[in-house]
Each structure stands twice: as structure tokens, then as C-alpha cells.
From TrEMBL, chain A:
Species lineage: Bacteria, Bacillati, Actinomycetota, Actinomycetes, Pseudonocardiales
Key words of the record: Oxidoreductase, Pyruvate, Thiamine pyrophosphate
InterPro entries, alphabetized: THDP-binding, Transketo_C/PFOR_II, Transketolase-like_Pyr-bd, Transketolase_C
EC code: 1.2.4.1
Protein name in the entry: Pyruvate dehydrogenase E1 component beta subunit
From TrEMBL, chain B:
Job description of the protein: The pyruvate dehydrogenase complex catalyzes the overall conversion of pyruvate to acetyl-CoA and CO(2).
Domain Dehydrogenase E1 component: start-end pairs: 42-339
Coiled-coil intervals, chain numbering: none
Classification via PANTHER family: PYRUVATE DEHYDROGENASE E1 COMPONENT SUBUNIT ALPHA (PTHR11516:SF60), PYRUVATE DEHYDROGENASE E1 COMPONENT, ALPHA SUBUNIT BACTERIAL AND ORGANELLAR (PTHR11516)
Alphabetical UniProt keywords: Oxidoreductase, Pyruvate, Thiamine pyrophosphate
Subunit: Heterodimer of an alpha and a beta chain.
Cofactor: thiamine diphosphate
UniProt gene name: pdhA
Protein name per UniProt: Pyruvate dehydrogenase E1 component subunit alpha
Catalytic reaction(s) noted: N(6)-[(R)-lipoyl]-L-lysyl-[protein] + pyruvate + H(+) = N(6)-[(R)-S(8)-acetyldihydrolipoyl]-L-lysyl-[protein] + CO2
Compositionally skewed regions (Basic residues) per UniProt: 16-27
Residue stretches of biased makeup (Polar residues): 1-15
Length: 331, 364
């Protein structure tokens, strides 16, 4: 068992999968000579050559579409989209093509590709470079959307995504790349579509994904240590398919829930989770479900404004306190 | 119209060499096999009859959705498909019924797809715009204008990656050359030396918009030079000219891995789709299209050259009509998909918690 960064886990997995399977290749902007904007692909061009590590022109629609076409013929492209913000340029190829080809041709060909892309704010990058728009993809049947929060999950889910025969949007987060965690020497591919209870507990359920799952974990550990509050944390890990069962089972046990998400509140992923809780655990609820989400503004550049707009450990802690007070369970 | 089509002289015969039993007299059929010429005539006529039956099926409400026909483009369709090997791959837009047939798919399966039946090319999941058949090498008809171009480039990438000798052909309309995907995909194909031939069918109309109102450079083959790619224009009403030009570019792509752009200038006989009365068209434009009718003209030429007599032509037409009718009968007799198969094609790799809810089902 080694302690490595999220970045390292991604890098190692790409390398191992390329060694394992000749059909796996990488394609994207600045992933080769420049070694990736976030250095996930460092060293891979040198090791595997231009055929398997393809630098593309700045043409998101063109190269994402080319990856879809290559996948239709059985290759396993792993696309790096510099950030999720630029995926909008490739939206047609992702939503109208990658997601539809298996269905609209009656199952005759599938699209075994992975779209790796970081999202998230907090780096003072301004409105067009700080978005959490994974929801746009999680809305679409035919796509799979995964969002690991730990290095071990990053590895297990990337393995699963590369070996999967469907298009998978693999959501990373700028704030996660340098986080560390234990990764077993041998990692099995994760089961896509399954959430994980990353900390068992009885007092309240906190649900998050990607960066906010990590924040939820930290908050829960802090609450346990400081106040003896025993929160259960559910890390969704997969946004489509969505594991409602694990969420509902947890809320049936704890009777209350706070959802932590980096995206905007209205129509956000938290809204879907809250609806699922209403569907599956209405009779068990002791308080309304709360959502901690980003302020609904184009993310500003100025540091104090950006900080105020994004959910944090503090805002999540506040929401947990308020919910526990409402159910009279705060010690 | 800013320009008229120039007829490419069939000087270069591409892969088709004069052989025994070929037309001996001079003229444009010199060196051609009469059987092959009759074969082209049969296939063009079959597509014509098929499309007429499709239009009929639409008015009878047996076919739904959109239905874009190849009427007037049969020479282009047949000429292009004769330049491809069976193993070569084709990506098309939504106007693909004729291509599906000429690429080797049973007309019955094409009609069954229009009828939304399980025996259709996409088991009823695609309809008019989304036909597909791996064995025939049809890698799909696509309904988003230009959406197929990056896909075709990617398929060529896969061929190149594996060192295969297939060529990809990517068909599109004139209006399609102005969408970003066209530029991005041609640029990438040229940068990476991918074996793909992009074919623009310039019928001078995209729905109601003429090519000179949508393209700043309306001689579309010239776009190729922006990608250091070979570009060429051919008379799309001449099946032999199309076949020869396409064969040359396809074989060149096979040998060198270089992409190319072919513009086939053609005419649309009817509206954009079966429901479009094409009121925006001038009488001259409609008259010009009629004059250019590739099926009628090819028939007349074959008779004039003594390759067909009137009886033989009628016999071929009768056969084509019978095959189109049989396609309709096959489609009519085929089963509708069962609603219990609704969730069969969302994911190729089964996955936990895949939603299989019908509209009125409770979530829990
Ligand atoms: C991206 C996109 N925009 C608009 C449409 C609607 N549309 C369908 S066909 C068409 C005209 C295309 O013309 P052209 O490329 O010349 O092909 P043709 O129909 O003549 O074969 C339009 C605008 C579409 N399907 N996709």
C-alpha cells in the first residue's frame, strides 16, 4: 500500500492500461510535448510515441469526434479535455454522437471511450474557466459519468472506465490533483454506478461527489473528533448511473441529510438527490433535506468573492449543525 | 447559379480497365463493359423506384419522421459506391437510403428501417436518418449536419493505427461545408495523413438556401487547398465520371494515406424531404433539375449507344420496380419492435443502477 497523489494515481493507471492493451491511446491538447496542462500524462509521449499519445490542434469538436469514430472501430481512446469548460465546444460529439451511437443503431456498435476532464473553481480563473457542468452530461442516457474523490477511487474508476464499452465522462477536479491517499498495490476496477459509504455513521448523512466528497469526509471526521457527531458520508462516485439505493438506505438510518455539491443549486445534482430521498425515505425524515451548493453567479475572479461563492468545509459544517439542531440531535 | 457543372471527361478510367466484351465504338462508353453499364442503370433505377415507394409509404403513414430522398442524385450515389471496396467504410448524412442500397444492404432491410421494424438496418431504432450495417461497411447515417465528419476522420485514424488498407468515405451536402466540424475534421485528417475521402454532394441547395448564399467560396472543392489536400470537382449527374474521380481519390488515399475532397455537382429533383413542396425554387431551377435527370439521361444514352434497346430498358425497369415492391412487402411483413426491448441499447457494458423506469413507474 502506497500513499500517492490523485495526479499520480491517474498517471500510473493510464500508463499501466497502455502497457496492458495496445488499443488504448491518449488524445488531446498539449498532452504530449507539453506533458499535459496538469501533467497527468508526463513522460508518456517519450515512452509510447506519437501514435499512442496524440497532441491535437485546438479543435475540441474535431478531436473528440475523431475519438468517437476510432472507438466505433474498437480502439479505446482516452481523451483529455483540458478542462470541462471546453467540452462545450465538443458537446455535439459527446451528446449527439458518443451517447447515441449504441442506441440509434440498435446496439450494432458501441463507443468505448473515456473523456477525462477536470472541473471546478477556486483557482481565480474567472467565469469561463471555473465551471462545474458535469450535470449536463449526467443528464444524458448513453453516457456514464464518474467523479472519484480519492486516489484509490481515481485508479479503480479509471480502470473501469477504460475497460468499459461505453463512453465515460471521467470528472476530475483541479483541487484534487495534489491530494494524497492510500492506494493498494493491486487495484481492481470499480463497479461503475455504485456509491460508497466512505464513513459509516448514525446521526446524519452527508452526500457529496468529487471535491465535495473529500470535503464531506474531512468535515465528518472533524465533527466526530470535536463534537462526537457521528455523520455518515456517502460518496456518489458515479453521477450516471446514480446509486439512489445507497443514499436512501443511509437516510433511512440517520433520518436527515445534507448534500454537498460544487455545482449550482437550481436544477443541480443535489436536486436529483433530494428528490430521490423524498421518493425513498420520506417517512424516515426528521428534517428537510439541505443542500450546500455554489452561489448562483458566474464565478468571479476576485479572491474574496470567489471564496464566498464556493461551498467549503465551513459552509458544510454550518449546514450540518443547523440540520442537527432542527432534529434536536446536536450535542 | 454562379457556376455550372463542368463535365469531367472520362479520360482516366481509374481501376476499371477496358476488357473483352467491352464497348468498342468510340465515344464516352468506349472500353466499358456493357454488363457493367446495364448494372449501373439497374441500380440507379432501383434507387429511383425505391425512393418513390418510400415517398408513397410516407403518405400512407407507414413511414414517420423525416424522409430525405436521393431523387436526382442516383448517378452520384452509384458512382461513388462503385469506387469503394466492400470492406471500405462509409459515413453519410441523413440522405442515405440510396447509399445503403448501393453499399450492398438488401433493399428490404432499408425499407424495414423506414417502417421502424426489427428487420431494419438499425432494428427500428434509427429510422430514415440512422441506417447502419457493419458488414456492408455503412458506419451510419447521421442527422446532425456535419456530425459525421469528425467520426469519419476517427474511423480513418483507427485504420491507420492498425495499419489496415481500408479507406473511409464521408458523404455530406454543400450546406455542410460551413459548419465548424468540417474545418476541424479536414484539418486533422490532413495533419495526420488519414485515408479518408470527403465527398460533398453539391445539389446547390441546403433546404431552401442556395450554395452561393451560404458559402463565401461556392466552388467547394477549392476548400481542400486550405488543408493542402487534393480537391476535385466532378459532374454528379454522370455516373462514370463520378466513379472514375472517386476511384482515383480512393485508391490514392489507400496508397498514400492522404485525404482528399471530391465535389460532385448534382441536382435535387424534389424538396428537401418528402413533406417539402419546395416553393422557394424557381421554375428554371426545377426545369434544370428535370433536364439533368441522371436516370432518364443515362437510359437515353445507353439506348443511343446501342447498349440497351427499348425492350431491354423496360425489362430492367420492371425488375427494379419488382425489387422495390418486394422491399415494401418485406417491410410490411416484418415485426414491430416489442416495447419490452426498450432498455436493451442504452449501454453496451451493463452497469449497476442503470435506470429502467417507464414514465409512470415510481422511483422507489
Ligand atoms: C447542425 C444542424 N443544423 C441544422 C440542421 C437542419 N438541417 C437538416 S438538413 C439541412 C440542410 C443541409 O443541406 P446540405 O448540407 O446541402 O445537404 P442536402 O440536404 O442538400 O443533402 C439543415 C439545415 C441539422 N440537421 N443540423
Amino acid at each position: 500500500m502506497a500513499v500517492i497523489t490523485y495526479r499520480q494515481a491517474l498517471h500510473d493507471t493510464l500508463r499501466e492500461e497502455m502497457l496492458r492493451d495496445e488499443d488504448v491511446f491518449l488524445i488531446g491538447e498539449e498532452i504530449g510535448v507539453f506533458e499535459g496542462s496538469y501533467k497527468i500524462t508526463a513522460g508518456l509521449l517519450k515512452e509510447f510515441g506519437e501514435k499512442r499519445v496524440r497532441d491535437t490542434p485546438i479543435a475540441e469538436e474535431g478531436f473528440v469526434g475523431a475519438a468517437v469514430g476510432a472507438a466505433m472501430l474498437g480502439l479505446r481512446p482516452v481523451v483529455e479535455l483540458m478542462t470541462i469548460n471546453f467540452s462545450l465546444i465538443a458537446l455535439d460529439q459527446i451528446v449527439n454522437h458518443a451517447a447515441k451511437i449504441y442506441g440509434m443503431f440498435g446496439g450494432q456498435t458501441s463507443v468505448p471511450m473515456v473523456l477525462r476532464t477536470p472541473g471546478g473553481g477556486g483557482q481565480q480563473l474567472g467565469a469561463t474557466h471555473s465551471q462545474n457542468i458535469e450535470l449536463y452530461y449526467a443528464f444524458v442516457p448513453g453516457l456514464k459519468v464518474v467523479a472519484p474523490s480519492t486516489p484509490a477511487d481515481a485508479k479503480a474508476l479509471l480502470l473501469a472506465s477504460i475497460r468499459d464499452n461505453d463512453p465515460v465522462l471521467f470528472l476530475e477536479n483541479l483541487a484534487l490533483y495534489n491530494t494524497k491517499g492510500e492506494v493498494p498495490d493491486v487495484v481492481e476496477p470499480a463497479e461503475i454506478g455504485k456509491a460508497k459509504v466512505s464513513k459509516p455513521g448514525t446521526d446524519i448523512t452527508i452526500i457529496g461527489y468529487s471535491r465535495m466528497a473529500m470535503v464531506a469526509q474531512q468535515v465528518a471526521e472533524q465533527l466526530q473528533a470535536d463534537e462526537g457527531i457521528n455523520a455518515e458520508v456517502v460518496d456518489l462516485r458515479s453521477l450516471r448511473p446514480l446509486d439512489r439505493e445507497t443514499v436512501v438506505e443511509s437516510v433511512r438510518k440517520t433520518g436527515c441529510a445534507v448534500i454537498a455539491e460544487d455545482d449550482w443549486l437550481t436544477y443541480g445534482i443535489g436536486a436529483e438527490i433530494a428528490a430521490s430521498i423524498s421518493d425513498g425515505a420520506f417517512d424516515y425524515l426528521d428534517a428537510p433535506v439541505r443542500r450546500v451548493a455554489a452561489a448562483e453567479v458566474p464565478l468571479p475572479y476576485a479572491k474574496p468573492l470567489e471564496r464566498a461563492a464556493l461551498p467549503s468545509a465551513e459552509s458544510l459544517t454550518t449546514a450540518v449543525h443547523q440540520t442537527l439542531e432542527a432534529v434536536g440531535r446536536r450535542r | 447559379m454562379a457556376q455550372t457543372a463542368t463535365r469531367t471527361k472520362p479520360a482516366t478510367r481509374g481501376t476499371t480497365k477496358p476488357r473483352r466484351g467491352s464497348v468498342r465504338r468510340g465515344g464516352r462508353f468506349a472500353g466499358e463493359s456493357p454488363e457493367l453499364l446495364q448494372d449501373y442503370f439497374y441500380e440507379m433505377t432501383l434507387i429511383r423506384r425505391f425512393e418513390e415507394r418510400a415517398a408513397q409509404g410516407y403518405t400512407q403513414a407507414k413511414i414517420g419522421g423525416y424522409c430525405h430522398l436521393n431523387l436526382g442524385e442516383e448517378a452520384t450515389v452509384v458512382g461513388l459506391m462503385r469506387a469503394l471496396r466492400k470492406t471500405d467504410l462509409l459515413f453519410t448524412n441523413y440522405r442515405e437510403h440510396g447509399y445503403a442500397i448501393a453499399k450492398g444492404i438488401e433493399p428490404g432491410r432499408v425499407m424495414a428501417e423506414l417502417y421502424g421494424r426489427t428487420t431494419g438496418t438499425s432494428k427500428g431504432w434509427g429510422g430514415s436518418m440512422h441506417m447502419f450495417d457493419v458488414e456492408a461497411g455503412l458506419l451510419g447515417g447521421y442527422g446532425i449536419v456535419g456530425g459525421q465528419i469528425p467520426l469519419a476522420t476517427g474511423a480513418a485514424l483507427a485504420i491507420d493505427y492498425r495499419g489496415g488498407d481500408q479507406v473511409v468515405m464521408c458523404q455530406m451536402g454543400d450546406g455542410t461545408t460551413n459548419i465548424g466540424a468540417f474545418h476541424e475534421a479536414l484539418n486533422i485528417a490532413a495533419l495526420w495523413n488519414l485515408p479518408v475521402v470527403f465527398v460533398v454532394i453539391n445539389n446547390k441547395l441546403g433546404m431552401g438556401t442556395t450554395v452561393d448564399k451560404s458559402s463565401a467560396e461556392s466552388e467547394l472543392y477549392k476548400r481542400a487547398s486550405a488543408y493542402r489536400m487534393h480537391g476535385e470537382r466532378v459532374d454528379g449527374n454522370d455516373v462514370l465520371a463520378v466513379r472514375d474521380a472517386a476511384s482515383r481519390l480512393v485508391e490514392q488515399a489507400r496508397e498514400t494515406g492522404r485525404p482528399a475532397l471530391l465535389e460532385a455537382v448534382s441536382e435535387r429533383l424534389k424538396g428537401h424531404s418528402v413533406v417539402d413542396p419546395a416553393k422557394y425554387r424557381s421554375e428554371e431551377s426545377v426545369e434544370q433539375a428535370k433536364q439533368a435527370d441522371p436516370v432518364a439521361n443515362f437510359r437515353a444514352e445507353l439506348i443511343e449507344a446501342g447498349i440497351l434497346d427499348e425492350d431491354a430498358a423496360v425489362e430492367i425497369e420492371r425488375k427494379a420496380q419488382a425489387e422495390a415492391d418486394a422491399a415494401v412487402a418485406f417491410a410490411d411483413d416484418s415485426p414491430h419492435p416489442d416495447p419490452s426491448t426498450l432498455f436493451d441499447y442504452t449501454y453496451a457494458t451493463p452497469v449497476a443502477n442503470d435506470s429502467r423506469r417507464l414514465p409512470a413507474d415510481p422511483v422507489f
